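Project outcomes to date are best conveyed with an example. Our students and postdoctoral researchers have been running inverse folding experiments weekly, and each run begins with a structure described purely in tokens. The record below, which covers 153 residues, was selected by the lab manager from last quarter's runs and is presented without edits.
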């Protein structure tokens, strides 16, 4: 049986906290820094009523938001979908919650949330950086990750 990717990442981060996890022209993040971001995202998701089996949609152009949110939903036993207007149609899953690092439209449903600068810290009422424990998959057929593609990737 395959391991949960979020839980596997957190174990790797604990073993090699100072190794480089992400590097681009502007920044370098260690495994520990990325694990902290994943934990903070998981805690914010929980604070916004995301539970095991939820399907979470994320809309962002920030690679750290994409990676941290996808690993966080995995740890929580949730599915993750890129919330893009191009990803629609009969086959597209409909997320239970949508999180965006871009401005929310006026009148957005209560299940739509803004990822803003407050997401740099754990939400109020949550312990410091204690990662949630993976509860196990809801079923072997549960949606894990859905992306759209240009067809060239």
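After processing, the design step wrote out the following sequence:
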């Amino acid at each position: 049986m395959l391991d949960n990717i979020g839980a596997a990442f957190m174990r790797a981060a604990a073993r090699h906290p100072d190794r480089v996890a992400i590097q681009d022209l502007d920044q370098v993040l260690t495994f520990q820094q990325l694990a902290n971001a994943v934990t903070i995202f998981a805690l914010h998701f929980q604070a916004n009523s995301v539970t095991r089996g939820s399907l979470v949609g994320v809309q962002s152009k920030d690679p750290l938001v994409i990676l941290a949110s996808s690993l966080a939903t995995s740890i929580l036993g949730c599915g993750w979908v890129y919330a893009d207007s191009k990803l629609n149609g009969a086959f597209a899953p409909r997320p239970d919650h949508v999180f965006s690092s871009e401005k929310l439209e006026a009148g957005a449903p209560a299940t739509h949330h803004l990822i803003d600068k407050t997401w740099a810290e754990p939400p109020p009422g949550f312990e410091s950086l204690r990662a949630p424990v993976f509860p196990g998959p809801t079923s072997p057929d549960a949606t894990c990750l859905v992306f759209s593609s240009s067809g060239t990737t």
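The beta strands are 20-23, 28-30, 55-59, 79-82, 97-100, 112-114, 145-146. The chain is about 25% helix and 15% strand. The training component of this project remains on track.
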